[in-house]
Design goal:
The structure holds 2 protein chains of 2 kinds.
Chain A: H1 19-35, E1 44-48, H2 56-59, E2 63-66, H3 72-82, E3 87-93, H4 94-100, H5 102-111, E4 115-121, H6 156-163, E5 167-172, H7 176-188, E6 193-198, H8 208-214, E7 215-217, H9 227-233, E8 240-247, H10 253-256
Helix pairs in contact in A: 1-7, 4-5, 5-6
Chain B: E1 9-18, H1 22-36, E2 39-45, E3 52-62, E4 73-78, H2 81-87, E5 91-100, E6 113-116, H3 118-124, H4 133-143, H5 148-159, H6 163-179, E7 197-200, H7 201-211, E8 216-219, H8 226-239, E9 242-245, H9 249-261, E10 266-270, H10 272-288, E11 292-298, H11 315-320, E12 328-330, H12 335-352, E13 355-361, H13 362-366, E14 368-371, E15 416-418, H14 432-443, H15 445-455, E16 459-463, E17 469-473, H16 477-484, E18 493-497, E19 499-501, H17 505-512, E20 517-522, H18 528-537, E21 543-546, H19 555-565
Parallel strand pairs in B: 1-4, 4-5, 5-6, 8-9, 8-10, 10-11, 11-13, 12-13, 17-18, 17-20, 20-21
Antiparallel strand pairs in B: 1-3, 2-3, 2-14, 7-14, 12-19, 16-18
Classes of the chains: A alpha/beta, B alpha/beta.
């Protein structure tokens, strides 16, 4: 059955933007989960921060709240506190969540708040036309770092693992079907799920060729409850592993209140 | 000066270092007095530390309603030397000092000093140090002929199974003076019981919000707002309330917005610095029209300022929080009003879908007085709900500016909220025309809101209502003002402003018109209320009594200052 997820909002992303892959994967994930009877459309709430990613809330016809820059995670924790029956899915960007709002990710992981966080990680501030973010590579030349960034990037998946997130995964916009499958699993996970979505920014950080060569999928049959293994795996740099690194069942913050 | 005969006012100070239990002892004394039928006002002073320092609770009481404590003392209960040294010159001529006989250098006129074996009795009964104040309270009962059995009742109510040690210590203290056949002094006794309880401003505020349907309270600790969090956390199961402490004020306020968006009446409490961190999200509550309640218990700033003291320095900031949108700023003046406006804040936020700021300060938050909460009827007022369905839009235009509300989870309904400017359906809009329409829609709420403010008596008048000598004030200053005008040479009309935004301009013009002289009384440097009145109704108040030494006004001192002006 088709689920009408389109809105009348005019899409303002750059033509060819990899956000379209994320949008399509998400709509497909929702449609499948709704048709499989696993979630109810009326109960889905999409949250978004501020940045190119944030406009996704306008493009999906479900309940939504576009929050402040960096604050989508506490907003969605609030949504779950206000009504624990809702399915809280938050979208964010690497500027939005790893710069402005990193504290909230750490604490949401720690308390295992029942939120699914999908981070559009393109290693650059897009909407403000190209500055470094916490995941930009050292040496990145943006408008605020014409001589190249002098800072090492952080590894968000590693931060989330060490903070206690109960679902940590990574996907790449170049493989939309795989992205959709991981999104589905994240949405069905009970507790805080962090999905880092690596994406090229075709306007300010075109990493298409770089990532195409580097990414690979990990064996999905490996046990997912080995924190030490997961922490080592997400740090691989030569090749960039994709998949669900860690997934454990723990009581959520909201159900313990 | 009022013509009626005044009842006597008595004051007892209990002090020691932090960890001595002076505060708890003072509150228990206040509870005893309230049980007897006295009107009570108890204030707390303490520095920002955990052990040591100069801490005291000052309890004033009378047969008539009192709104503030007084400096002049009938008795001091001293648990350390510093209390004696600092406060002995505040004693009335007939005043006495009860002190622990392990203090070695207390000297003074005979008849003024009553040495008690406070610590040695505690040691003898193997009691925790904190409980030793019970000895002094027992002695106090003997000396002033207060019913020891009522004190025991207070202990039982408060300490439950741990009450016995306090009861035993109190008896020891009582017997000690009785055995010595000490002369007694009798206070004027109340002739009847009074309704209600003693409660501090923070607890009263919390109770008011709960009565108006609050189901989520989310906060980050900050003095002097912290005890709202403590009080509600303790009561959570009784009220089916969820209480959450989050990682920062920024997280807190965004959680509040999320929770309210999901359909649950939610509030937070903080003080100046924490409030500053919340303002970006309060601005979002403005544009996204999310019902939000913030309790702002002020302390002296700027910045970290003087954390455990009091001030009224944040009014203009609250009124001006980032961006142009309708908001409500309320300021209760005493514990009873804290309850009333706590409820009102929650209801108004939901009826008008906007942020409400409730301005308290340390003096109101942490002081205790009698309040008859049952007298004030608070219930969750009806709000404008939408029917939902396929055609539902969150920000539908309406004449009164209030769009029908639906929450996520409503069948076949999409609810879209947005911190961006948006069209009726909640989708981002950058259109100039739409921005104008949305501004106009939001500000259309002001019309009914102004009526509401009049209905709830946003301006209240005390003292000699016919007098042309007018003092005007807001917030906790009410206490000292209402006491001071009992003692001024001329009769005074005292005007309290409870709704600072929107300002009840018509009522104020009516009240101030015809005044011969007006004086503005505030605990700040820049006279925020006077500026506001000048801005909104064009009346310039030249006479100002301002204080920013971090302490609340003292009634007798204030009376002298008022006398100088009139």
């Amino acid at each position: 059955m088709t689920v009408d997820l389109n809105t009348k909002a005019k899409n303002t992303w750059c033509p060819g933007c990899t956000n379209f892959m994320i949008l399509t994967a998400f709509k497909n994930a929702l449609t499948e989960l709704i048709n499989e009877g696993k979630i109810k459309k009326d109960k889905v709430v999409v949250g978004a921060g501020i940045g190119c990613h944030g406009k996704i809330a306008d493009y999906v016809n479900v309940n939504s709240i576009i929050s402040l820059h960096g604050r989508v995670v506490p907003t969605m924790t609030g949504v779950k506190l206000g009504n624990p029956d809702l399915t809280a899915i938050a979208f964010s960007g690497d500027g939005d969540s790893y710069a402005e709002g990193m504290e909230h990710l750490v604490h949401a992981s720690k308390r295992n708040s029942d939120i699914k966080l999908f981070v559009h990680n393109n290693q650059v501030f897009g909407l403000t036309t190209g500055q470094v973010t916490p995941t930009s590579k050292k040496g990145y030349k943006g408008k605020s770092t014409p001589g190249g960034s002098i800072e090492e990037p952080i590894n968000p998946s590693l931060v989330m693992l060490s903070s206690g997130a109960t679902f940590v995964a990574r996907a790449y916009t170049g493989d939309m079907v795989f992205l959709m499958q991981v999104m589905k699993k994240a949405i069905l996970h009970k507790g805080f799920a962090h999905l880092e979505i690596i994406q090229p920014c075709i306007s300010f950080a075109d990493t298409r060729d770089y990532f195409k060569e580097k990414v690979y999928q990990i064996d999905s049959n490996l046990p997912k409850n080995d924190l030490k293994w997961a922490m080592e795996k997400v740090q691989e740099m030569e090749k960039i592993p994709l998949g669900i690194f860690y997934e454990v069942d723990k009581p959520t913050f909201e159900e313990q209140l | 000066m009022l013509k009626n005969k005044r009842e006597k006012i008595y004051t007892i100070l209990i002090g020691g270092q932090a960890g001595d239990g002076a505060r708890e002892a003072g509150v228990n004394l206040a509870r005893l007095l309230c049980k007897m039928g006295y009107y009570v006002f108890a204030s707390m002073e303490y520095p920002s530390l955990i052990r040591g320092g100069h801490n005291f609770c000052r309890v004033s009481f009378s047969k008539e309603k009192i709104y503030s404590d007084y400096r002049e003392l009938d008795a001091i209960i001293a648990l350390n030397q510093e209390i004696v040294d600092i406060h002995r010159n505040e004693l009335k001529k007939t005043g006495v000092i009860f002190f622990d006989n392990n203090l070695n250098s207390v000297s003074g006129k005979s008849g003024q000093l009553i040495s008690l074996p406070i610590s040695s009795y505690a040691k003898e009964l193997n009691a925790p140090t904190l409980a030793r104040t019970a000895v002094a309270l027992g002695s106090l009962c003997y000396y002033y002929d207060l019913p020891l059995e009522d004190l025991n009742l207070v202990f039982t109510e408060i300490f439950g199974t741990k009450a016995q040690i306090n009861i035993d210590l109190a008896k020891k203290g009582f017997d000690y003076l009785q055995d010595k056949n000490f002369d007694k002094i009798k206070f004027d006794k109340p002739d009847k019981k009074i309704k209600g309880q003693i409660i501090d401003g923070n607890a009263a505020t919390g109770e008011g919000m709960v009565a108006a349907g609050m189901k989520n309270y989310i906060a980050y600790p900050m003095t002097p707002a912290t005890s709202v969090l403590h009080h509600l956390a303790k009561q959570a199961s009784k009220y089916d309330l969820k209480v959450t402490q989050a990682e920062s004020e920024v997280a807190v306020i965004n959680m509040v917005l999320g929770s309210a968006f999901a359909g649950t009446r939610t509030a937070t409490g903080t003080s100046g610095g924490g409030f500053a961190l919340m303002t970006e999200a309060l601005s979002m509550a403005g544009i996204a029209e999310i019902p939000t309640v913030v309790v702002e218990s002020q302390r002296p700033g700027p910045s970290t300022g003087v954390p455990t003291r009091t001030a009224q320095g944040d009014l203009q900031f609250a009124r001006q929080v980032l961006g142009e949108f309708p908001r409500i700023v309320l300021a209760p003046g005493d514990q009873q009003e804290a309850y009333e406006l706590g409820g009102k804040a929650m209801n108004l936020a939901w009826q008008y879908q906007l942020p409400v700021m409730l301005m308290l300060d340390k003096h109101l938050s942490e002081s205790l007085s009698n309040a008859d909460l049952k007298k004030i009827k608070i219930k969750p007022e009806k709000i404008k709900m939408g029917k939902g369905g396929k055609n539902y839009v969150r920000y539908a235009f309406s004449k009164d500016g209030v769009s029908p509300l639906c929450f996520p989870g409503t069948p076949d309904t999409i609810v879209k909220a947005n911190s961006y400017e948006h069209s009726e359906d909640g989708l981002i809009s950058e259109s100039g025309e739409m921005t104008v329409e949305m501004f106009d829609k939001r500000f259309a709420k002001m019309k009914n809101l102004e009526k509401e403010i009049t209905k709830m008596k946003g301006v209240r008048i005390y003292g000699d209502k016919k007098s042309k000598n007018v003092v005007i004030f807001w917030g906790s200053t009410k206490g000292a003002v209402l006491e001071a005008i009992k003692h001024t040479k001329k009769s005074i009309k005292a005007v309290q402003v409870l709704t600072l935004e929107p300002l009840p301009t018509k009522s104020l013009i009516g009240v101030l018109k015809g005044a011969k002289k007006i004086a503005d009384i505030e605990l700040n440097y820049t006279a925020a209320l006077a500026s506001l009145i000048r801005e909104k109704i064009g009346i310039e108040i030249k006479n100002k009594i301002l204080k920013y030494d971090t302490y609340a006004f003292e009634p007798m001192e204030l009376a002298k200052k008022i006398d100088k002006i009139f």
